Amino acid sequence: MSTTSCSTLDWAKVDLSRWPEIIVPPPGPKSDEYHRRCTKYFKGLSGQVKLFPVAFESGKGCTLVDVDGNRYIDFSSGIYVTTLGHCHPKISEAVAKYAKQLMNAHDFTTPIKMKLVEKLAEILPGDLNGFQFYDSGTTAVEAGMRVMRATSGRNEMLSCYYDFHGKTYGSVSLAQIRSQIYGRVRAPGSHMVPRPDVYRPMWTNDDGTIDTDSYLAFYDEYINKATVGDVAGFVLEPIQGWGGSIMPPDDFFPKLRRYCDEKGILLMADEVLTGWGRTGKWLCMEHWGVVPDVVTLGKGFGNGFPVTCVAVREPHKESFEKISASSSYGGNPMACAAALASTEVIEEENLLEYCAELGAHCTKTLNEMKDRHPIIGDVRCRGALMGIELVKDRQTKEPFNAAGEFVYQHAFRNGLAWIPAGHILRMSPPIVMDFDTATKGLELIEEAIGAAEKELT
């Protein structure tokens, strides 16, 4: 057990003699009833709900309880959102205070907003000191793109295969479009290129290692031949979330930073999923010593309260004046209170260091799991952001989608609330989770993988 796991985390500690605890096989009768009544009117559910339509009633720390009284260990954090656990006392109190004092004042200055922007300028790397606040990740991404266009005077955008940046037209055009709502056409000037995947590389060196230089060479050729030479920005997730916790080789982002500087292209890191402690740093990009020109923050930034942020470097912050940057809900006092309290909790509880230690513990456990199970092709972990890639054969690396669905449902039935992604299992437990609970969650996954091997192979 890490020495960093001290009394400040005790409020979230899980009693493993009670959690997980399955009283009735889930989804239970009350879940079935609530789900049926809700979905009579509420449509467009995520894949994880469709695979396991349970109705949750409460959460505390690293645990969830459904309406039938079943108790789950939370390995999802509300899909990367409740990074500091459900209902952290300090954050809940901060939101409640402003729910009673001042809910909204449009974009007028408030004392809590002033404190938040000063704190952000203090802790973010480099000269990231220009900010605007929004209420969703996709809105922040759209604003980040507008800033890059205003700053550069250019229009086109580059992004990468399997990245995910939101569900409005501009941000969804940075990713794969599979909906006729958008006419199967990306927004004009949107271009996609491959990014390095160590497990599934497109280019390799003679020794079999991934060749990141070839990716950069391809970007150069693509820009010269497939764009009109009007590229404003390159938008990437530091670690791909929806794509399956895909982590880049360590030399990629430093090389990409130099490439963008040489070409006069702005670099935007979409840290909605990876930022604010999720990987053991304020920004995931800090792992590689890279300061982007534009950063988007969200999800764990307010630990569940809908607050997001666009942060830009000093030379670009006046561009906010050109893009009609304000919004109805962005930066409201409740949102600023949630974000500031979340930031202070990370500092006060030493959670960046603790998350790194938790990640090292989980990495060791995941690698041991891989050694025991032939359908595990690859495991990935950075802090409390993890992935397990299931394959039919380690040589061919053929995705094992049926196993992914089986493992997800099997572990959920045994008390693990988490995230599916086809053949890639995604895990994002709260960073306040103690080591024993993390081990228990991984044991539930390993048990499900063993069952899948017996059932499906």
Question: Explain this structure to me?
Answer:
- It is a single chain.
- Mean pLDDT is 95; it is low at 1-7.
- Helices cover 36% and strands 15% of the residues.
- Strand 11 (376-382) and strand 12 form a beta hairpin.
- The chain has 457 residues and is an alpha/beta fold.
- The radius of gyration is 22 Å and the shape is globular.
- It is built from 13 helices and 14 strands.
- The longest helix is centred in the C-terminal third of the chain and has 22 residues, at 351-372.
- It folds into 3 domains: 1-74, no CATH class; 89-348, Type I PLP-dependent aspartate aminotransferase-like (Major domain) (Aspartate Aminotransferase, domain 2), CATH 3.40.640.10; 366-380 and 387-406 and 419-426 and 449-457, no CATH class.
- The strands form 3 sheets. A 7-stranded mixed β-sheet has the order 4-10-9-8-7-5-6, sandwiched between helices. A 4-stranded mixed β-sheet has the order 1-2-3-13.
Describe the structure in brief.
The protein is of the alpha/beta class and 457 residues long. Helix content is 36%, strand content 15%.
